[in-house]
Amino acid sequence: MKTLPHTLAGLALVSLAAISFAAAPAAKQPEPTVITPGTAGAPPSDAIVLFDGKDLSNWKSEDGSEPKWKIENGYAEVAVKGILTKQEFGAIQLHIEWATPAEVKGEGQGRGNSGVYFQGRYEIQVLDSYNNKTYPNGQASAFYLNSAPLVNASRKPGEWQTYDIVFHPPKPDADGKVAPGSFTVLHNGVLTQDHIPVKGDATTSAKFTGASPTGPLMLQNHGNPVRYRNIWVRKLD
Ligand code: MG
Fold first, then answer.
1. 192 CA to middle of ligand 1, Å?
2. Ligand 1: distance of its center to the CA of 108 in Å?
3. What span, in angstroms and rounded, lies between the C-alpha atoms of 209 and 215?
4. What is the secondary structure of the chain as a DSSP string?
5. pLDDT band for position 203 (50/70/90)?
6. 75 alpha carbon to ligand 1 midpoint, in Å?
7. Which of 32, 47, 124, 198 is the most exposed place for a label (fewest CB within 10 A)?
C-alpha cells in the first residue's frame, strides 16, 4: 500500500523527463505552414499552376513567340516547337500529366517522344515505353542519357500518366566546382528515380555549360503529338 504512490510518482517523473527531453529538439524547428492538399493530383493551395487546361499564358515558344500548341478538352498538344515557362525556377516539386498518341506510330525514340526539361537542360524523358524497346536511359521516366528508371511503370498509349518530380539544381561550391543536385521521380505513383545526382556537366540533348541557380521548365517538341495537362510546381527554396 505504501509503495504504490511512490511508484506512481516515480513513473510521472520519468514520463515528464521523457516528454521534456523529446520536446527540446522539436522546439528548434519552425512551425510547418498549413496548406490544403489537392485531391487526385489537383494542385495544393501553395502551388504555382502553370497549366490548368485553359491557356498557355505562363509559357512561350522556344523562339520567344506565343505557343502554337492546340488546346482542347483541358489538355495542350505538342506542335511546331517546344515551350518554356516565362518564370524561372530553382529547386521545385513538379506535377505533370501526359499522354502519348493513342494511335501508335513509329518505334523506339520515334514513338510518343517529348520531354520535361528542368532549367531548360536536364530532361526527364517522355516516351511511349509501353511495349516499345529503346536504350534504357532513353525510355520514359529516364533522366535522359544519365539514369534509366528503376522500373518501367508505363501505361498504354493514349492513357493519361503522371510524373511527380523533385528537382534540386547543381550549385557552384566554394572551390569553383559544381556540387551535384538531384532528381527524384515517381511515374504513375511509382518511384523510378531515387535521388539521382544531377551534375553540372550532365549530358542531355540540350547544350549547356556550368550550373545555374534558376531556369525555365521546357516541354520538348520531338515531332510527336504528345498531350499535357494539370501542370503545377511548388518552389522548394
Ligand atoms: Mg524527349
1. 17
2. 11
3. 13
4. --HHHHHHHHHHHHHHHHHHHHHHHHHTSPPPPP----STTPPPTT-EEEE-SS--TTEEETTSS----EEETTEEE-BSB-EEESS-BSSEEEEEEEE--SS--S-GGGSS-EEEEETTTEEEEE---SS----GGGSTT-BTTTB--SS--PPPTTS-EEEEEEEE--EE-TTSSEE-EEEEEEETTEEEEEEEEE-TT---SS---S--S-B--EE---SS--EEEEEEEEE--
5. low
6. 19
7. 32
Beta bridge partners of 70: 77
Q: What is the torsion angle, in degrees rounded to the nearest 10, for the CA atoms of residue 155, residue 157, residue 160 and residue 166?
A: 60
pLDDT tens column, 112-140: 999 999 999 999 999 999 999 999 999 99
Lowest-pLDDT range of 42-51, 53-62, 176-185: 176-185
Give residue 96 CA to ligand 1 midpoint distance, Å: 15
Distance 2 CA to ligand 1 centre (A): 78
Residue with cell 528503376: 150
Between the CA of 29 and the centroid of ligand 1 the distance, in Å, is: 41
Output the CA 101–ligand 1 centroid distance in Å: 14
C-alpha cell at 130: 509501353
Residue 50 CA to residue 190 CA, distance in Å, equals 23
Question: In this structure, are residues 154 and 161 in contact, taking their beta carbons and an 8 Å threshold?
Answer: yes
127 alpha carbon – ligand 1 mean position (Å): 7
